Amino acid sequence: MRRYGKNPDEDDVRVRPNRKGNRPRTNIRPKHEDAAEGLVLTVDRGRLTCLIEGRTVTAMKARELGRKSAVVGDRVAVVGDLSGAKDTLARIVRVEPRTSTLRRTADDDDPFERVVVANADQLAIVTALADPEPRPRLIDRCLVAAYDAGLEPLLVLTKSDLASADALLESYGTLGVPAIVTNRDELTDGSAAEQVREALKGRMTAFVGHSGVGKTTLVNALVPERRRATGNVNAVTGRGRHTTTSALALPLPGDAGWVIDTPGVRSFGLAHIDPSRVIHAFPDLEPGTVDCPRACSHDEQDCALDQWVADGHADPARLHSLRRLLSTRERREGD
Ligand SMILES: Nc1nc2c(ncn2[C@@H]2O[C@H](COP(=O)(O)OP(=O)(O)OP(=O)(O)O)[C@@H](O)[C@H]2O)c(=O)[nH]1
Ligand SMILES: [Zn+2]
């Protein structure tokens, strides 16, 4: 059983039992039946930009939401002034249950668990092949976060004009992570952007990457309107690009899915990860865990997976990869 301490975001995935057992919670069913449905595009100091029927509306959390947060990707119910006119402020009265929750924890400069993005179904891990050098442990950590959250990973290897992708492709081949190799020229002449768009079709994809890997170049190639938006002041949010701290959801042209750009990360904290969820991403190994000790880390002496692999049920390289991923949960210098 996972425990999250006092994280107020957790009541969206579990319905709390009614302790007293006699009084049904009257506010479980929405009282705001006239509320409009919105999608949170970005969050800036308590102001949430929501897309409501094609308009962007600025809103804040209604008091009744309490400490519960709404994050980029959340589906929300909004009341009040929905005109989207300047200086209007609507209220978010409900956050709909999430299909997924991408989190990270315990950065050097951020000790709290954060929900990065809600409702994404894919995580694009953007890594430059050089300048900056690839950081396999960071990639592994992002993969673990994706598997834990139930997102499908996609590796986007940029700056292929500078270095070969062979070593990384081989290393992640065992994990079965799909990969796309690109560079700026291929992105601007169209062909690579098409290939990436194909992988994003119909999905909500969160893009993460270390600062400087070319994520902006990539996102601009995918979402041409973004280029205008990031010039000086973002057309969607009205704020300058250098103050970007929140993720930003951008629609792909032609209703072809969503890109959620996230600020460059230096690390990806994993304190919240549950190995039993990560192992769902390894259906070839998962059945071998039935004989594991309780709360097995799958990286300990009594782990049943060694025997499972020794008996020929799965490829030893897969177990090796799983353990490599799980071991990244322990923090090391440079994470
Ligand atoms: N050689 C080469 N350089 C690239 C490529 N793509 C981007 N760059 C350069 O790499 C640098 C970083 O690119 P950005 O797209 O701003 O990267 P970013 O990941 O958004 O970086 P932050 O804004 O710091 O988060 C810029 O100087 C780009 O011109 C590429 O394919 N090849
Ligand atoms: Zn085990």
Automatic annotation (TrEMBL):
InterPro entries to which the protein is assigned, alphabetical: G_CP_dom, P-loop_NTPase, Ribosome_biogen_GTPase_RsgA, RsgA_GTPase_dom
Residue numbers binding Zn(2+): 292, 296, 298, 303
Cofactor note: Binds 1 zinc ion per subunit.
Chief place where the protein resides: cytoplasm
Record: residues binding GTP: 158-161, 209-217
Quaternary organization: Monomer. Associates with 30S ribosomal subunit, binds 16S rRNA.
Name this polypeptide is given: Small ribosomal subunit biogenesis GTPase RsgA
Organism (species): Streptomyces bugieae
Gene from which the chain derives: rsgA
